[in-house]
Design brief:
Largest sheet: 7 strands, mixed
Strand content: 15-25%
Strand order of the largest sheet: 5-4-3-2-1-14-15
Number of helices: 17
Oligomer: single chain
Distance between the termini: 66 Å
Helix content: 25-40%
Structural class: alpha/beta
Radius of gyration: 26 Å
Length: 555
Amino acid sequence: MTDAADTLTIVLAQMTQAVGDLAANADAMRGVRARHPGADLILYPEFQLIGYPPEDLVLKPALAERAATMLAELALETADGGPAMLVGSVERDGADLYNIVALLDGGQIVAVRRKHELPNYGTFDEKRIFVPGPLPDVVDWRGIKLGLPICEDGWLPKVCQHLARQGAELLISVNGSPYEIDKDERRLTQVFASRVAETGLPVIFLNRIGGQDEIVFDGCSFVLNGDGTTAHRLTDWEPEERVTRWAKCANGWVCETGAIAEWEAHPADIYSAMIVSLRDYVERNRFPGVVLGLSGGIDSAICAAIAADALGPDKVWCVMLPSRFTSQASLDDAAGCAAMIGCRLDTIPIAAAVDAFDTMLEGSFADVEVDITEENVQSRIRGVTLMALSNKFGPMLLTTGNKSEMSVGYATIYGDMAGGYNPLKDAYKMTVFALAKWRNENVPRLSRNPVTPVMPEGVITKPPSAELRPDQKDEDSLPPYPDLDRMLHMLVEEEASTDEVVARYGFARETVARIERLLMLAEYKRRQAPPGVKLSTRNFGRDRRYPITHGFRTG
């Protein structure tokens, strides 16, 4: 620990959290502190003691009580003369709950600051749970005036400008900022660069990593000096304990320059998001592995690859479920994909079950034309078969439908939608193509299955088909995927009207109106779909909450 007031050593602990497992989170923080006995201060991400986001779990009084006890225990441990700790937690005051950071030093909780700006958009619903704290005062710690904006407090100007007026010398922003495409650079070059420009103060941005249900955190922490230059950039997706060294100069505190990590570009970052999210979901929910239907198509092939990268190929069980409509090319592609990945592949033909259902229903279906009903029966037979394997042997069933299909209802409820998690839930079809091409040429940094390629080239190049009737192609009933995805991006991410889509791209108005209608009608299916990792600004579920029953259309 430094004695002089003009130098400072701060450790940024970019780490994961286990929501609700306070003991594990506290032990992880103790581990970081033990590894850096000479530091002055160790920073942990937002809500590190509780895990973020806790959602309604935090409403249980016992959780807040246990958090208070554990925070006091952590504070007592700082009486050893070692580093101070900045710890995120929850605080109950009567009936009110606050999102807080607590500064622990010298055996005490020397300061507590409550989050002022409560986000209430997209994945965030904090106003429903927490009460906003007052504009926070600076913390005078060891002769240094610290500003402690908590996450959203740093994303908006008011709190940081208030702290600057109070004489803050350094802004420390602990965050639980979920991954979205392009968000890493936006945090640095737009949001927190603006706080530096407005206040003239150096800023530490610390973010968590790891998956939590449908959201995933990418880290990408950094330090900006008061002149706007970047002093440190921590890696994305992985844990890191970055030691930063500070000196007080004539113009204030300046951080010594350290390593500048290069953050992943597209689509590597999307693939990493899928790996981390699936890995944490499966392992934290204690599944022994995953099982999925491998059809020979691109969606199931990339899901199998993601699963093997996340868990290792020995924990991925693929099952081919051919019907009389399944082509030999699909059988060959599924076998080739499983061999390249190195995972188990079983084949369970469904013809006998299809015949049994035909016999069961022939009386009720007499004199009625064959239609999509019979196609859906095949899909549901596959779903029942895969769920039987999951129930009998324990692996979680992965679903493999992409966002384009889920947008327009091109999926069978209780059939191919059955399962526990969907890595592609927020990935449009053209994103799936990009991921498949990239993965066939690259080994992800986080992979537990460092092989390439992972699927035959024919899986990527052949026309997509559900193979539920003779010579079926997706484009028989949907626009070409490049066009469909453009329409859907505007309708979903931009909340555009039919006329706005037509004006931008020149599509036939009746086609766009039909797609909008399908998008609205499929809401009831999406409500019953399994969770999947959030990638975009408007994923189905947390971000986009539409009523199932409504009559509004723009077309």
